[in-house]
Structure formats: C-alpha cells, structure tokens
C-alpha cells in the first residue's frame, strides 16, 4: 500500500503486466492448487519436524512467558479478571500442546455470543509483519490474542509474488494473483498497454469477489478502513460513505482504531459484520532499514499498542469476547545490501535486455520482450550468462518461462503475467545497470517458500479455540474462514473447502 506515502516501496515492490481472466478455471485449479501446499507440508522430513518442534517449544515458551508477564504487569480493569484467568488457562495448555504436539483443546464448540446479535469479523493487517517480529520485544497485546486464540504456529504463507497488493487481495478473495488479476504492485496490460498502479481503482483490474462484496451481496454491512481494492466499486459494493475510506497513509493509526471501535456503538442493523483495519507498519520501516534494525522493534511495539487500544475499546463496549479478530500480515521482510546485486547489463555478452522490456526488477524480475523476440530464446541466453561464472552473483538468479515456474507458485494463468519471470535468491536484488549507491535495507517479493517471507496469522474470538496452534497455511484459505464465521456462502476460490472446519470450532 502506500503509493503516496512510500515511494521507496514503489520502487522495490514494482512489477508487471495485464488482464486476462481465466476465472473459469477456478474449480479445476483450486482442486490441485490448494492441495499442493498441504501435501508438501506433510512431506517434510522427520528431521525438519524435530527441528521445527524444538523451535516451536522455544517460541511457545517465550510466548507463554510473555502471556504470564502480561498477567503480572497488566493494569487491572473491570473485565481483566475474567480475561486473565482465561489467559492463564490457555497459556499452560498451549505450552503443553506444543511439546506433546496437539489437540486437547479446552473447548469443543464455538462460544455463544454474549452481546452482539450476529457474528462479526474484524480483519487486521499489519503490513510486512514478518513471522517472528512478535518476539522482538514485549508484545503483551498481540501475545494476549495468541494466548487466547489460534495461531499459525510457524507463520502464515503469503502468495507469490510476496508483494503487498497481490497478497492483500488474495487474503480477501481467496484467489491466487493469476486469478484475482493483481499480479504485481504495478504492471501493464499487454492487450491495450494500460498501466495498473497501486492507485488504480478501475474495476477492470480487480477480478474475483472480495469479502466486502460477498458480505454486501448477502444483505449485510461491511466496512473497510483501508485495504487494497476496497475503494473499487464492484457489484453491490460501492465503497459507501461512512463504511469505506480512500487510502490516506497520513491518517494516524489511533484514528483508524477509534473509527473501527465506533462501529460497535451502532445498532445491530447498522453494524458491519465484516471490517478491515490496515497499518502500513512495520513494512514502511522494513524497507528502509531491514528487518533487524531497532526501528523495527519500535514499529512492532507501536502496532502492539494499537492492538491494545483496540482490545481496550472492545472491552469497554463489552464485545471483546464476541468479536472474531483475525490479525495477519501480507508478507515478511529480508535484509538486502547492495553488494548482493545482479545487473542485467552484465548479461550483454549473451543478450541485451533493454530496460523497457523489464516490467519489474526486484525482487520479482518480470520481463516482456517485444513481439518478434522469442521469450524462450531470451530465457536460454540469460541463463547461459548467469551460469557462466562471469556474471557477478549470477548464480543467485534463475530465469524461467512462466509456464516452467514451479507449479506451487501458481503464477502462470494470466496474460497479465509477463512471459519471463526470474526467481531471485533470498536477499539478492536485480538492477538494470551499475550505479554508485551503496545502501542496505529490506525487501520482499521473493519466492513464497522462503521462510523470511512468512507473516503472522492470529484468530481470536468465539469461533477460535483458545491456545490453539495450527500448521502454517497459505493466505488464500482466509476467505473461506471468514465466510464460515459469518455463515454466508462465498464465491469460488482457490482455498480448500474443508480448511475452515479444520481451524474453527464447530457450532454448538
Ligand atoms: Zn506489504
């Protein structure tokens, strides 16, 4: 997000081409696509499982410690005793659960609503919240959601490319970028030359059915406080005044939280049942200073304060335990430095790649040569140069025809995706030509198999078991989770139909 606020992000997140739809192939694709990630997760070698278990035990111990610290240091409030005892009850099972690996949940069914008339989902995105950031500093409020809710134990897996717009729109449509159309943060339509940017609100770009549209289609209300695509008029969604805001990165986070809280003061007939809340941080800082800088620690602490403000406001209204809060990020972040560069101009002995063929350089290298130039020939010559040993860092880039990309990336079924895609190793970047600047920072957009690209998933509320850890999953599953909570029929998507029941408590 943040086209107006973060020009650096624009550069770093930039990308390629255009609209085609292939929407008709959803069902076929979803069947095989949604099962693949799960299958590969299940096939992890035992050694990895052991290692992951060890890491988890450590992580859970840390979060449990955090939860207890919270109990001791939190300020008593009218509802604190109940919440605290719940946290205490949950923290212990969570810890034992991780070591014994699982499923003795203390609850067997969803908890009844106490005050709200209908199920409500509040979907929160903290941009670029890399999985693990929650351990950078004390995060008592996020820790409270984790201890009393359901967490993806090793993080949420973004879609490829691990960029802001493609991922935010996958979260709300359940579709891979090839199907929802936002295949990059910016790209060119190969059919008419039109350019998509992060400020494009023409519905022609935004395919699929986002959650706010699904909700409104069912006669319910939705409200968005920023989310890529939410300003776009689609079907029955008209970005209505009072329930939808055009992106403005300068709105203080506190104001966003307070506005969302006010929805809970509305009469039930007016109250949105689906709400979004978006924070640019810590992505903003991550690009500038990389994931390990103290500025990130401060940004994470600030996001935690915002979650605390939200929880406090919901508690004041007596609805905290009634609201299903889903807190996610869109992708992670990895440190970059300018000695880890690959220059396209260094390939000139093999092939000249003019800058105007390149729709984005890093971390998604996307190239559309003019008609008349064979993409297969370009790929072959580029890889020949990259493997020659004569191109600086050439071994860290591999170039593909998009149809030859690993199928787990699901990055082929759209004309908008340029014919040539380069996969860059973690932390490396591709640039056109040598420059004098020498700087370090952070980036994302890489292969979604890279762990540093992972982000968080936390579900808290009546539909989520307390203290539950679930295996990592791709963010295209979230759409079905939300429609299940709201008990509405969703649109066709790439998520697995059975996923929601695997993560949510069954109805009483
Ligand atoms: Zn982002």
UniProtKB/TrEMBL annotation:
Top-level division of the source organism's lineage: Eukaryota
GO molecular function, one term: hydrolase activity
Spans traversing the lipid bilayer: 46-73
Region: Disordered, residue numbers: 1-42
Cross-referenced SUPFAM superfamilies: Alkaline phosphatase-like
UniProt keyword list: Membrane, Transmembrane, Transmembrane helix
Biased amino acid composition, Polar residues: 1-10
Transmembrane is among the record's keywords: yes
CDD domains assigned to the protein according to its UniProt record, in alphabetical order: Enpp
Coiled coil region boundaries: none
Matches recorded under Pfam families: Phosphodiest
Alphabetized PANTHER family for the sequence: BIS(5'-ADENOSYL)-TRIPHOSPHATASE, ECTONUCLEOTIDE PYROPHOSPHATASE/PHOSPHODIESTERASE
Name this protein carries in UniProt: Ectonucleotide pyrophosphatase/phosphodiesterase family member 3
Organism of this sequence: Eucalyptus globulus
């Amino acid at each position: 997000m943040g086209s107006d606020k973060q020009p650096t992000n624009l550069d770093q997140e930039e990308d390629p081409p255009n609209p085609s739809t292939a929407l008709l192939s959803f069902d076929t694709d979803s069947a095989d696509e949604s099962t693949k990630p799960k299958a590969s997760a299940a096939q992890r070698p035992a050694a990895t499982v052991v290692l992951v278990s060890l890491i988890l035990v450590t992580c859970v111990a840390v979060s449990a410690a955090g939860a207890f610290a919270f109990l001791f240091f939190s300020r008593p409030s009218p509802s604190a005793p109940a919440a605290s005892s719940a946290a205490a009850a949950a923290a212990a099972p969570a810890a034992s659960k991780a070591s014994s690996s699982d499923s003795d949940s203390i609850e067997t069914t969803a908890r009844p609503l106490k005050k709200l008339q209908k199920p409500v989902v509040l979907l929160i995105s903290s941009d670029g919240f890399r999985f693990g950031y929650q351990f950078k500093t004390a995060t008592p409020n996020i820790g409270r959601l984790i201890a009393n809710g359901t967490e993806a134990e090793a993080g949420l897996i973004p879609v490829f490319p691990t960029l802001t717009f493609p991922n935010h729109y996958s979260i709300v449509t359940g579709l891979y970028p090839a199907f929802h159309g936002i295949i990059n943060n910016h790209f060119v339509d190969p059919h008419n030359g039109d350019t998509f940017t992060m400020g494009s609100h023409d519905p022609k770009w935004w395919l699929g059915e986002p959650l706010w549209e699904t909700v409104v289609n069912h006669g319910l209300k939705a409200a968005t406080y920023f989310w890529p695509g939410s300003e776009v008029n689609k079907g029955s969604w008209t970005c209505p005044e009072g329930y939808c805001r055009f992106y403005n990165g300068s709105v203080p986070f506190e104001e966003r939280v307070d506005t969302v809280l006010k929805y809970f003061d509305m009469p039930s007939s007016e109250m949105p049942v689906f709400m979004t809340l978006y924070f640019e941080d810590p992505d903003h800082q991550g690009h500038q200073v990389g994931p390990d800088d103290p500025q990130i620690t401060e940004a994470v602490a600030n996001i935690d304060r915002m979650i605390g403000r939200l929880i406090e406001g919901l508690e004041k209204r007596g609805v905290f335990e009634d609201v299903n809060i889903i807190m996610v990020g869109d992708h992670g972040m990895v440190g970059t430095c300018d000695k880890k560069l690959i220059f396209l101009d260094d390939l000139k002995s093999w092939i000249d790649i003019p800058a105007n063929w390149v729709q984005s350089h890093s971390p998604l290298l996307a190239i559309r040569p003019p008609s008349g130039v064979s993409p297969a020939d370009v790929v072959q010559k580029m890889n020949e140069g990259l493997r020659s040993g004569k191109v600086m860092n050439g071994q860290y880039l591999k170039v593909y025809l998009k149809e030859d990309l690993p199928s787990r990336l699901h990055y082929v079924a759209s004309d908008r995706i340029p014919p040539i895609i380069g996969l860059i190793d973690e932390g490396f970047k591709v640039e056109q030509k040598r420059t004098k600047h020498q700087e370090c920072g952070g980036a994302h957009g890489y292969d979604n198999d890279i762990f540093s690209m992972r982000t968080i998933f936390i579900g808290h509320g009546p539909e989520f078991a307390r203290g539950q850890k679930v295996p990592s999953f791709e963010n295209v599953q979230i759409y079905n989770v939300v429609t299940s909570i709201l008990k509405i029929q969703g649109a066709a998507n790439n998520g697995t139909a059975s996923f929601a029941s695997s993560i949510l408590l069954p109805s009483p």
